[in-house]
From TrEMBL:
Pfam families: Aminotran_1_2, GntR
Family recorded in the similarity comment: In the C-terminal section; belongs to the class-I pyridoxal-phosphate-dependent aminotransferase family.
Ranges where the record places region Disordered: 89-109
SMART domains found in the cross-reference section: HTH_GNTR
InterPro entries registered for this protein in UniProt: Aminotransferase_I/II_large (IPR004839), HTH_trans_reg/aminotransferase (IPR051446), PyrdxlP-dep_Trfase (IPR015424), PyrdxlP-dep_Trfase_major (IPR015421), Tscrpt_reg_HTH_GntR (IPR000524), WH-like_DNA-bd_sf (IPR036388), WH_DNA-bd_sf (IPR036390)
Keyword DNA-binding annotated: yes
Domain of life: Bacteria
Assigned keywords, A-Z: Aminotransferase, DNA-binding, Pyridoxal phosphate, Transcription, Transcription regulation, Transferase
Entry protein name: Aminotransferase class I/II-fold pyridoxal phosphate-dependent enzyme
Amino acid sequence: MTSLLITLDRAGERSLQEQIFERIREQIVSGRLAPGAPVPSSRALASELRVSRNSVIFAYERLINEGYLTTRPMVGTFVSQVLPDEAVSARPAPQPGTAGHSRPPAPQFTGRAHTILNSETIPIDFWPQRTDPAAFPVRTWRRIVQQALANPGSGLTEYGDPCGLMELRCAIADHVARARGVQARPEQIVIVAGAQLALNLTLRLLMREAGEIVVENPCN
């Protein structure tokens, strides 16, 4: 198995997930990781770097989505044979009358769908950050969307409150008060894009210079 030799700046401003992505991408682009070379599993790399496995999974998924890595079911993860930097790089067009003056073929882009191996034998889906699609309230969502589009106003195309829609923050404040016993005003609630961003912002507020943060390993 190829060693990645990744060094992380744990005191830096960039997230560990982003640093892992950049370090692996740099090694692929520089040629240190050759096309077709295998990379460690997310669990092995997370253990080696002493980070959450999710940080490695998200970095790997981004590398796969951007074309730097590819997966082979039941085999592992490998460096792509054709890198995106090579597929879309611009080359000088040959001049008329010179050798090779012909229209180059259009670049072809391929994608990889997320799949679960042996899904028929897995009674419970532990895929991170994914919920059961059957639990999504499609009818309720459709009705609310139709009501919102009936009178969208300026909010349809303009930026809103950077802390999030006030109606949603009021609903969240009411919910956590009844369900969790947490007393919070809507003005104290901020809507973010996901758990990773929420944790990042929270740590930035609580972290002191040269301080230490201790978290449990969610994979143990």
